[in-house]
Amino acid sequence: MIVTDRQQRILQILLENEDGISLAEVEKRLETSRRTLYREFGLLRPELAKSDLTLTNKKGYLQLTGPDESIADLRGELEESQGQDEMKAEDRGNALAALLLLNWMSLPVKT
User: Fold this and answer.
1) What domains, with CATH codes, occur in the chain?
2) DSSP track, the chain
3) Which of 10, 31, 65, 88 has the maximum number of C-beta atoms within 10 A of its C-beta?
4) How far apart are CA 24 and CA 60, in angstroms?
5) Cβ atoms within 10 Å, residue 99
6) In angstroms, rounded to a whole number, what is the distance separating the alpha carbons of residues 1 and 9?
7) pLDDT average, residue stretch 49-74
């Protein structure tokens, strides 16, 4: 599973708190906004589903649920992996503009 550093930290927090953890506590530990966390959860859910894992909200507490084997595999994978570097919005825009320019330059010119 390819995840960003932030996503990796989110998963580690969830794995450390098997009984669940409040969203406010995750916000505090990561020093990030609720909106950012919701975006990250949206990106993580399909990846977790591939391993039969689910991110659930039980009585206000976030919890990672699934087969014990899948959770153990995720733990091992996180220990081995290094998260991808995160890009700021401006950097993402610049990278996208560069890709578009490179693709545009490779188009054949009709005369």
Assistant:
1) 5-105 (1.10.10.10)
2) ---BHHHHHHHHHHHH-TT-EEHHHHHHHHT--HHHHHHHHHHHHHHHHTTT-EEEEETTEEEEES-HHHHHHHHHHHHH--PBPP--HHHHHHHHHHHHHHHHHTSPPP-
3) 10
4) 10
5) 10
6) 14
7) 93
